[in-house]
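Reviewers of the previous submission asked for a worked example of the structure-prediction workflow described in the proposal, so we include one complete record here. The input consisted solely of the amino acid sequence. No template or homolog information was supplied to the procedure at any stage.
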Amino acid sequence: MKVYLWQTTSDAWSFMPDTLQEYPRKAEYIQRAAVAGLLVNILLTALKGIAGVHAGSRALVADAVHSFSDLTTDIVVIVGARFWCRPPDETHPMGHKGIETVVSLFIGLMLVVTGIGIAVDSLRSFGSHSSSIRPDLFAVVTAAISLVSKEILFRWTLKKAGKTGSGALAANAWHHRSDGLSSIPVLVAVVAPLISRSLVFLDSIGGAVVSIFIVNAGWKVLQPVIGEVTNSAPPVEVVNKMMSAAEGVTGVISIHRFRARMQGGGIYVDLHLQVSGDNTVYQGYSIGKEVEETIMRSDSSVRDVIARIEPFSPCGDADKCKDS
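From that input alone, the workflow returned the following structure tokens.
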């Protein structure tokens, strides 16, 4: 899964690409995307629920529950966007993106819990309700509509997430994708009774397969969130790219204690720079400033960079040389 991130500069929040510069516009953009998903999920939840009950299909009813969970996360994104899109202030000097991490965590956990619940219910009912399942063309059409509409919604929402840099909106898009993919076994389950009554056992199997899709989607959402919550380092290739960019700045002799961590949907970096001891204070400051700006430009997910300036020391660390 591609995770879209956004960055800060010393002057203002900026987005990649450079559109939607103002907080109200970004929040409204995310909310409109989530509202579109909300309306689709309301319709699908009702259709699947009615068709599932009418056909006696446990798989289709389980898929209706999945669409309802999509509906719930749409509401969370709509409300949450008003808060995490706000620029830094006195109480949150690093911004409010941590709220988006919490929202993504909620979406991921809800997917996993929903999937496990459906799996348990499907396995318990295996072979116990074959007589209640009825061949139903309406159920087939409903499952087909769900498959097509959720794939379209997934692609559209993920594109909007890319424009806004919203990880939570991207997570919600993958929630739509899991709902669409889960309609495939459901479609098989509701078509089976039309072919032969002996195939009705596929309904319980379809419900169990749906649960696998849901849990897998939840884990995809949770993986990057867990990394952020635990302040994990970015991928090695990203760290190497940032270090190479910093080392290429004129006046930098060496770099050490380079530390980067994921937090609140972005990357925070701090490092120690060694420059010539003959530089003036202003020259050292200018080199440090150029390094910070270079690292910010090297990756759009970098939020903040703090560079400590040290005089060059042959032992690699001015503090250690001083102690010896």
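The CA atoms of residues 224 and 309 lie 32 Å apart. We consider this example representative of the routine output the project will generate in years two and three.
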